[in-house]
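Hey team,

Sharing the Ribonuclease P protein subunit p29 run so nobody has to redo it. Sequence (227 residues) first:
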Amino acid sequence: MDTKAHNVCTPLPFKITNKACTSENREKYLLKFLEQTLPQSDIKAISDELKRTFLFDKHRTKRIRHKPKKRKFLTTRKRILLGINKITRNSALKYVDMVPLNKMWLDYMKHMLDVKNFAALPDNPIDVHWDNVSQKLLKADFHGAIITISRSKCPSLVGITGIIIQDTKGTFRVLGKDNIIRTIPKEVVVFDIYMESTTLQLFGRELCTRPAERSVKKFKTTRIADL
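Structure output:
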C-alpha cells in the first residue's frame, strides 16, 4: 500500500488528458446516456423534458431601494422659540428700508393684473373686466403695499398710513413713516391702497383669510360688504 499523501487537486497527467475527448454530437450522447441510466418508465419523458426552457428572470435577487433622506425642517415650536416670522414693536425696521419692497410689490401687481399702467384698470362695475380684476385684487399678496385707513368702526384707526410688512388671517402689520409698527384688524376697516397714480378702496373683511388660502379662494364680488 502506498503510504505517500496524494493531493487530489493536482492536474491529471498529460497521457490521460490527451486521450480524453468530448462527443461531437453532444445531444445524441446525452440522450444515449439518459436512456441507459434512467428506468424504462421515464425514458418516454426525456424528449419533452429537454425541450423545456427555464426563465432565470423569475429568480432575480431583489434590489434594495434606498429611500432618499428627508430634509429636516424646523418645527413650529422651534420657530416660535427662535422668533422667526415674529415682528414686534421693538423690531429695528425703518420705513426707508421698506420702500424698495413697495416697488417690488408694484411690479408684482402689474404682472398679476396684466397691465402696464394702473390707470388702465376699470373704474366702473359695469365694465366687463370688473369682476376679473376684483377677483385678482382679493387674491393678491399685499406685503409691501402702501395703505391708508379711510373708514373704521374704531375712530382711532382712521388716517393710519404705512407699508404692510405682515399679512395674517385677521390683521395687517403696518410700518409707518415714524418707524412705528401698528397692528390693524381687517374686520373693522376700509382702506385705500396706492398703486402709483391710482388709488383703490378695499374692504378689510373681504381679506380675513391667510394669504396662501386667499390665493385659491373663490370670492363673490357681487356681495355688498357691511361696515
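The mean pLDDT is 79.

Ping me if you want the raw files.
A.
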